[in-house]
Amino acid sequence: MKKILIVDDHRIVRNGLRNLIELEADLQVAGEASSGAEAIQLVRENQYDAVVLDISMPGKNGVETLNELLEVSPTLPVLVLSGYSEDQYALNLMRNGCKGYLSKNSDSEEIINAIRTISAGRKYISAELAELMTNELSHPSQKQLHETLSPREFHVFMKLAVGQTPTAISEELSLSIKTISTYRFRILEKMALKSNADLTYYAIRYGLIN
What we know:
Blueprint: E1 2-7, H1 11-21, E2 27-33, H2 36-45, E3 50-53, H3 62-72, E4 78-82, H4 86-95, E5 100-103, H5 108-119, H6 127-138, H7 151-161, H8 166-173, H9 177-191, H10 196-205
Parallel strand pairs: 1-2, 1-3, 3-4, 4-5
Helix pairs in contact: 2-3, 4-6, 7-9, 7-10, 8-9
Domain Response regulatory: 3-119
Organism: Methylophilus luteus
Protein name: Response regulator
């Protein structure tokens, strides 16, 4: 029996996923969290075989939550189930360590198949994500600017975009302010932007934050 943690700020979504998962004899919902902070605490205290994670939540968003979950439990498989299409987030999140990415518009059978796949220690690549990965290999110059960032740069970018200060980021990531400033410089340079406000505008424009 695989133990699954559901992380979504909407009770109706959690209930729907619970009902779907518990129809399967080999899967069990062993925990629910309505926020990133709650999810991280549950993972510290319990053992799960997989996490189903929403990307858009108040407080810690899904990107931050993913990174912190993997810091607490590096081998924990995470399936991102998002209201955003694959072309907005999927490639960056796969680079950041999630094992699968699906739109919430996916059918029930695919969601269950994805959960089983990551619980077994494999990556789940949807048809849409496979096409994105193929296009990236065939046309690397057509990447969006945020897709050119390294996983750590993308993590810092998302924190800057939601208004966190370099001091707060350095404390949270246990890095020096100088290191965070270097990351910020590289991010602005790679994305041809000039300020944190530009980063926020870009993230909103491309649906990376609300």
